[in-house]
């Protein structure tokens, strides 16, 4: 029996299509990539209705300690001393893009007073749409 | 001249290291991708600041939020899930009935978001609240009577 002596095939793994697969994955991750402009840790309020927030929206975050941070959606957020600075910041952003969306990322335990003053500052800066950032509320834990 | 017959180099592009490079890129993009919470409730503001918001105290439904987070609707304490049922007959009579949310300055922000979410959900149950306003303290001081 000398069957296998004649025709020997080299063992190899077909890797020609691997690059295609890998590039597909790269493109997926590149497209979905969005740098988090605000890394403030807050306990977000929970809502059942949630709408997609446009990318590059400007952020205003309020922590439970009352600290305010702002970001224009491009750069990492910076802390500002008070609400007056939110108004000047928002006015600057609106001057560049009058239709810029703003995201309010506030801790759910924050007294409404702080939120009120930030919303008022954004209103004065003629912001058109504010998104209240929230987490998904489960239907079985509805009610408050 | 028999030079090129002896040692023929096969023409190919060296692709063996490409997989390494692309995997490196994949790992980079995977690590930097954040599936952050980028969803929330939209909260439209009046477009024209020159026309003051019309707050008709008599005609509208007033939802007050106490510092404890409890709700008082038209001077009656109410639970969150009772508010829409209370609004239903009023909205059937006047679909544009204004609903004003007025949180106490010390009320938690979460309570305001909860009631706002509840009112917005009314549309799914056939109780659409079209006219929700959350006046700021400055507006209340300026226009409330």
Short précis:
Chain A is of the alpha/beta class.
Write structural notes for this entry.
The complex is a heterodimer of chains A (144) and B (145). By secondary structure, chain A is of the alpha/beta class. In chain A, 29% of the residues lie in helices and 19% in strands. Chain A has helices at 18-32, 83-96, 112-124; strands at residues 46-47, 51-52, 58-62, 68-71, 78-80, 102-106, 129-133, 135-136. In chain A, the strands form two sheets. In chain A, strands 5-4-3-6-7 form a five-stranded mixed beta sheet, covered by helices on one side. In chain A, strands 1-8 form a two-stranded parallel ribbon. In chain A, strand 6 (102-106), helix 3 (112-124) and strand 7 form a beta-alpha-beta unit. In chain A, helix 2 runs parallel beside helix 3 (112-124). Chain A is elongated and about 90 Å long. The N and C termini of chain A lie far apart (82 Å). Chain B is of the alpha/beta class. Chain B is built from five helices and six strands; from the N terminus they run H-H-E-E-E-E-H-E-H-E-H. The longest helix of chain B has 15 residues, at 18-32. Chain B is elongated, with a radius of gyration of 30 Å. The model of chain B has no long low-confidence stretch (mean pLDDT 79). Chains A and B meet through helix 1, strand 1, strand 2, strand 6 and helix 3 of A and helix 2, strand 1, helix 4 and helix 5 of B.
Structural topology:
The complex is a heterodimer of chains A (144) and B (145).
Chain A lengths: L17 H15 L13 E2 L3 E2 L5 E5 L5 E4 L6 E3 L2 H14 L5 E5 L5 H13 L4 E5 L1 E2 L8
Helix pairs in contact in A: 2-3
Chain B lengths: L2 H4 L11 H15 L6 E6 L16 E5 L5 E3 L2 E3 L4 H11 L5 E5 L5 H13 L10 E2 L3 H7 L2
Parallel strand pairs in B: 2-5, 5-6
Antiparallel strand pairs in B: 2-3, 3-4
């Amino acid at each position: 029996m000398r069957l296998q002596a004649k025709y020997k095939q080299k063992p190899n793994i077909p890797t020609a299509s691997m690059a295609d697969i890998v590039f597909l994955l790269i493109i997926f991750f590149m497209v979905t990539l969005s740098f988090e402009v605000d890394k403030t840790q807050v306990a977000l309020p929970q809502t059942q209705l949630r709408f997609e927030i446009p990318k590059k929206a400007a952020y205003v975050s309020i922590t439970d300690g009352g600290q305010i941070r702002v970001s224009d959606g491009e750069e990492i957020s910076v802390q500002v001393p008070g609400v007056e600075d939110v108004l000047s910041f928002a006015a600057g952003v609106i001057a560049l893009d009058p239709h810029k969306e703003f995201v309010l990322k506030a801790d759910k335990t924050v007294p409404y007073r702080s939120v009120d003053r930030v919303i008022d500052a954004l209103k004065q800066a003629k912001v058109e749409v504010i998104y209240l950032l929230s987490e998904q509320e489960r239907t079985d834990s509805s009610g408050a | 001249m028999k030079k090129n017959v002896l040692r023929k180099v096969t023409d190919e592009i060296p692709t063996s290291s490409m997989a390494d490079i692309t995997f490196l890129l994949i790992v980079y993009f995977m690590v930097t991708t954040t599936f952050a919470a980028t969803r929330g409730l939209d909260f439209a503001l009046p477009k024209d600041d020159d026309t003051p918001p019309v707050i008709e105290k008599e005609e509208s439904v007033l939802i007050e939020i106490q510092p404890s987070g409890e709700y008082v609707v038209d001077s009656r304490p109410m639970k969150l899930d009772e508010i829409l049922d209370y609004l239903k007959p009023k909205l059937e009579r006047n679909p544009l009935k204004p609903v004003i949310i007025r949180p106490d300055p010390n009320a938690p922000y979460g309570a305001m978001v909860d009631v706002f979410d509840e009112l917005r959900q009314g549309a799914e149950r056939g109780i659409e609240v079209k006219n929700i306003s959350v006046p700021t303290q400055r507006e209340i001081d300026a226009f409330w009577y």
